[in-house]
């Protein structure tokens, strides 16, 4: 029976009731040690719902997917029913298959699908205790699954320590546990068997602060100085002292078994007993600890009464005893499946450089890296470096650690590792080690060459370290420093390693993008000097980037992508940047097509990390091409994925783009909400990467509503670098012209027109030339404007065409040509209605009203306008004949969630089954 936890139990009961009704949910219980988190998990487990359970184990925190395996092991027979890529990903994560490494988020999707399969026969409860000790790979997979729960009948409960850094869980509901109320605390204290005087009882209640574990454990150590108002130790440490005091009263052999179990961390008793036997202890020696209620075992699994007890045993033991326990465990762990754990025990037992152990740890790191367990790999490489016996090998391992930390997004740690490697590489110790290597004729760094890591000489290491430090600097907002470092590295490498220089310069394109046109021109200039062979995969990419990043069309995007693929480029990874550059030269249709192809490849290959930028680029192409609803669907999916996997840059960027789409629609509330979110402090505030799009969105909203001064204020941000040369900086030039003309600022309008004309000439796109013609029409006097308007209508896209016809119609009305004006304004209105551009449609209606022409209500947006973006996406795929499972695999959802959204969509569309969807017009 739990005391004083009625509110918490009610929250859990609500989640479980929802699961019985087919709804899913997740909750993070956060609180200090002993506050009752595990007790609440036990309460949930006792409510009659099928339960799977796992827990973080401190000693396994660096072993990728260790805790995940415990959770999914009961359902492993269902793994073979998963979609093939998800099955292969999960088996590879557990070391059960030979498949290529999978995107770590694909493993999260596999977990989601597996949980949905397990819940097919009834609700399922997943309990994850001590989440602060989960290995990072498991935490990422479980959080990905938890955030995507919807209609599977699955509940996930996480229990973790108080600090948000202990187990960051953005996007999940949290419940902070505090101490028990005074009456509940007193009732719990009174359940104990230790006689307490009123004074001691009062002191215990005061010092425990309602912590249930303290109320149960501290009475047994009254009089030992642990319960005393003069004791300065935090409550958790006093509890550990209390546990340690109980442990010291046990027989020596019992303490030995407990120490080995504490060092092992894992629940498996067999290796503990094998190790303990070499230290003179056995299973029988565990009995006194069982009798004291410290541990429980069924002969196969050992369970601690509380994690603090395990910590008390380990921390309270002598260093020599702890080292002996780890050595014994390393000897007791045999077989390839225990190689990683054995390596870590060897490392824990090491007291100085040990190349044998360092090699074992490096192999552990290599395996973790292949399985996308990047956090564990970083720790293993770092520890292997510390145990290395020569400086050259130590530097190599530090470089590997730094590179892996960069892959994991641990930019601060990557920079610290790189600094250590760089410092050591300049030392006399490194020079001496390198001379010994050269004299021996072997290179300890050659393994990195064989694995494709790059050059092995000092220059090669310097380049790799520069890449690491540049990415860390960029992530921390030091864009200028990162760019200078990249450029220096590329210039140093271009003569001896042009392909490596090309790889560095493609990253320099990204940093230059946030600095200004001078930096972009510098990158482009060096790109053109690289001596790449014609059949190098980088050649067509470099050729395209060298012009497009500065707005100069030098090649066709389709041709560049095809040539790169033919040369063996990694598609999609190597081609992502082509999409962003293609928008700079106005090849929007080709960008949308290429991004769509690359998105399909990402889904097929499980490369989730590339999806957010590709969905963003495709959204831009769709919007510019007059398909705003499809654009929003893609953007919403990109935002969900970016949030799920922590891609802050793309969260900011896509929020800002969604603000722009909301402005087009005339949804001022949504526009402002997305724009504010895009420039939130966590993304860099006013300097966030999404700031330019956010200003453009607010400008479009103001222009559509006729608030010209506000529009001018927002557009002023587009005239300042770096926004001035960004995609949206170029795309808002027509807006800048229109606003300036209508406010009488002819000079500003002329300047914007000159830039637009220049861009048109360099990009060679007819639709840009049409916008320039519209700008000339706005600036022309009298009848001189008409030929420019006619030219502007010669080649355009839907929204641009509608705006041109609106402006042309307004000009014709002022020229008293009512019939001609009506024709243009009606076409504009119809186009705006089709695009669901409400404020612009109303503006056209107002102009028609001024002509005395009545207009009906705005046309309906069609069947899809009734659906949410996710429902629209699912309905489209279902209409194409895809099954729920196929849709789920494509959209990273569970198949039960897909079915839930379809059944919500059917009545909105007036259909009864998916067979009727094909008869609907689902186009925009």
| N→C terminal distance | 58 Å
Radius of gyration from CA coordinates: 32 Å
Shape: globular
Secondary structure tally, helices: 47
- What composes the largest sheet? 5 strands, parallel
Please tally the β strands and state the result: 7
- Write out the strand line-up for the largest beta sheet, numbering strands in chain order: 2-3-4-1-5
Low-pLDDT ranges: 433-457
Walk me through what this model shows.
- With 924 residues, the protein is mostly helical.
- It has 47 helices and 7 strands.
- α11 crosses α15 (319-332), α12 (269-277) packs across α15 and α19 (391-407) packs parallel to α23 (458-475).
- The longest helix has 18 residues, at 458-475.
- It is globular, with a radius of gyration of 32 Å.
Features:
924 residues, mainly alpha, 5-stranded parallel sheet, two-stranded antiparallel sheet, 47 helices, 7 strands, 62% helix
Gist of the model:
The protein has 924 residues and is mainly α. Helices cover 62% and strands 4% of the residues. The relative contact order is 0.05.
Strand and helix map with partners:
Elements: H1 6-20, E1 25-30, H2 37-45, E2 50-55, H3 66-72, H4 84-93, H5 104-118, E3 124-129, H6 136-147, E4 154-160, E5 173-176, H7 182-189, H8 198-208, H9 212-217, H10 235-247, H11 252-264, H12 269-277, H13 287-291, E6 295-297, E7 302-304, H14 307-315, H15 319-332, H16 339-349, H17 355-370, H18 374-387, H19 391-407, H20 411-425, H21 428-440, H22 446-450, H23 458-475, H24 479-493, H25 498-513, H26 517-527, H27 538-548, H28 557-566, H29 576-584, H30 588-605, H31 611-624, H32 628-644, H33 648-665, H34 668-678, H35 691-704, H36 708-715, H37 727-731, H38 733-742, H39 746-763, H40 766-779, H41 785-792, H42 798-814, H43 818-835, H44 838-850, H45 869-879, H46 884-891, H47 895-909
Parallel strand pairs: 1-4, 1-5, 2-3, 3-4
Antiparallel strand pairs: 6-7
């Amino acid at each position: 029976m739990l005391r004083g936890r009625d509110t918490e139990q009610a929250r859990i009961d609500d989640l479980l009731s929802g699961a019985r009704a087919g709804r899913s949910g997740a909750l993070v219980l956060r609180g200090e040690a002993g506050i009752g988190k595990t007790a609440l998990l036990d309460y949930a487990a006792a409510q009659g719902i099928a339960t799977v359970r796992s827990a973080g184990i401190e000693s396994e925190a660096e072993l990728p997917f260790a805790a995940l395996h415990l959770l999914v092991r009961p359902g492993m027979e269902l793994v073979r029913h998963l979609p093939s890529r998800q099955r292969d990903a999960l088996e590879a994560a557990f070391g059960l298959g030979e498949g290529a490494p999978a995107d770590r988020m694909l493993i999260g999707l596999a977990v989601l699908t597996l949980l949905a399969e397990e819940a097919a026969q009834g609700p399922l409860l997943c309990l994850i205790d001590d989440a602060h000790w989960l290995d990072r790979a498991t935490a990422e997979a479980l959080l990905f699954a938890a955030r995507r729960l919807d209609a599977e009948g699955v509940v996930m409960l996480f229990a973790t320590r108080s600090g948000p850094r202990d187990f960051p869980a953005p996007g999940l509901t949290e419940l902070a546990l505090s101490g028990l109320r005074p009456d509940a605390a007193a009732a719990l204290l009174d359940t104990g068997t230790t006689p307490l005087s009123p004074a001691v009882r009062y002191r215990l209640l005061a010092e425990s602060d309602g912590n249930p574990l303290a109320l149960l454990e501290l009475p047994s150590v009254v009089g030992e100085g642990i319960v005393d108002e003069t004791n300065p130790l935090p409550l958790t440490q006093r509890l550990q002292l209390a546990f340690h005091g109980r442990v010291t009263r046990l027989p020596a052999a019992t303490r030995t078994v407990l120490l080995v179990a504490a060092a092992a961390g894992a629940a498996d008793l067999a290796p503990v007993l094998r190790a303990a036997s070499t230290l003179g202890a056995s299973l029988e020696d565990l009995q006194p600890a069982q009798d004291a209620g410290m541990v429980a075992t069924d002969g196969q699994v050992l369970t601690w009464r509380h994690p603090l007890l395990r910590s008390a045993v380990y921390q309270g033991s002598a260093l020599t005893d702890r080292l002996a326990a780890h050595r014994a465990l390393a000897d007791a762990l045999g077989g390839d499946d225990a190689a990683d754990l054995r390596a870590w025990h060897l490392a824990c037992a090491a007291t100085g450089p040990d190349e044998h152990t360092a090699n074992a740890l490096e192999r552990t790191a290599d395996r973790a890296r292949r399985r996308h367990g990047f956090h564990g790999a970083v720790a293993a490489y770092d520890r292997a470096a510390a145990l290395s016996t020569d400086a050259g090998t130590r530097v190599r391992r530090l470089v590997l650690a730094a590179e892996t930390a960069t892959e994991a997004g641990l930019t601060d740690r990557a920079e610290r590792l790189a600094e250590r490697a760089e410092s050591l590489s300049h030392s006399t110790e490194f020079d001496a080690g390198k001379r010994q290597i050269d004299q021996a004729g072997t290179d300890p760094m050659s393994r990195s060459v064989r694995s494709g890591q790059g050059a092995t000489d000092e220059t090669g290491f310097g380049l790799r370290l520069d890449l690491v430090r540049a990415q860390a600097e960029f992530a921390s907002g030091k864009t200028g420093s990162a760019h200078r470092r990249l450029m220096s590295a590329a210039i140093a490498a271009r003569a001896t390693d042009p392909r490596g220089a090309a790889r560095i310069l493609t990253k320099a394109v990204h940093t230059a993008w946030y600095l200004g046109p001078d930096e972009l021109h510098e990158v482009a200039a060096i790109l053109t000097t690289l001596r790449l062979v014609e059949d190098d995969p980088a050649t067509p990419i470099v050729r395209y980037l060298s012009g497009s990043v500065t707005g100069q069309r030098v090649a066709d995007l389709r041709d560049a992508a095809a040539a790169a693929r033919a040369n063996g480029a990694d598609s999609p990874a190597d081609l992502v940047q082509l999409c962003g550059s293609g928008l700079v030269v106005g090849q929007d249709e080709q960008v949308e097509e290429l991004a769509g192809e690359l998105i399909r490849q990402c889904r097929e290959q499980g490369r989730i990390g590339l999806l957010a930028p590709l969905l963003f680029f495709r959204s831009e192409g769709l919007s510019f091409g007059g398909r705003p609803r499809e654009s929003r669907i893609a953007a919403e999916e990109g935002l969900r994925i970016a949030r799920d996997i922590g891609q802050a840059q793309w969260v900011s960027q896509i929020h800002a783009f969604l603000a722009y789409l909301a402005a087009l629609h005339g949804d001022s509330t949504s526009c402002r909400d997305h724009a504010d979110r895009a420039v939130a402090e966590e993304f860099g505030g006013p300097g966030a990467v999404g700031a330019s799009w956010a200003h453009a969105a607010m400008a479009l909203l103001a222009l559509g509503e006729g608030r010209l001064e506000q529009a001018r204020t927002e557009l002023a941000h587009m005239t300042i670098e770096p926004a001035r040369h960004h995609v949206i900086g170029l795309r808002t030039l027509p807006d800048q012209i229109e606003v300036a003309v209508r406010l009488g600022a002819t000079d500003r309008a002329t300047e914007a027109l000159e830039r637009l004309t220049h861009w048109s000439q360099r990009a060679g796109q007819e639709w840009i030339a049409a916008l320039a013609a519209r700008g000339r029409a706005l600036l022309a006097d009298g009848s001189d404007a008409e030929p420019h308007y006619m030219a502007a209508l010669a080649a355009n896209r839907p929204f641009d065409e509608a705006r041109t016809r609106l402006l042309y119609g307004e000009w014709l009305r002022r020229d008293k040509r009512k019939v001609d004006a009506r024709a243009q304004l009606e076409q504009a209105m119809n186009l705006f209605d089709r695009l669901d551009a409400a404020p612009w449609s109303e503006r056209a209606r107002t102009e028609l009203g001024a002509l005395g022409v009545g207009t009906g209500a705005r046309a309906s947006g069609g069947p899809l306008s009734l659906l949410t973006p996710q429902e629209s996406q699912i309905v489209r795929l279902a209409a194409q004949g895809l099954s729920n499972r196929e849709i789920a695999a494509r959209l990273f959802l569970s198949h039960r969630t897909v079915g839930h959204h379809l059944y919500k969509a059917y009545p909105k569309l007036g259909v009864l089954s998916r067979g009727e969807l094909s008869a609907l017009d689902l186009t925009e």
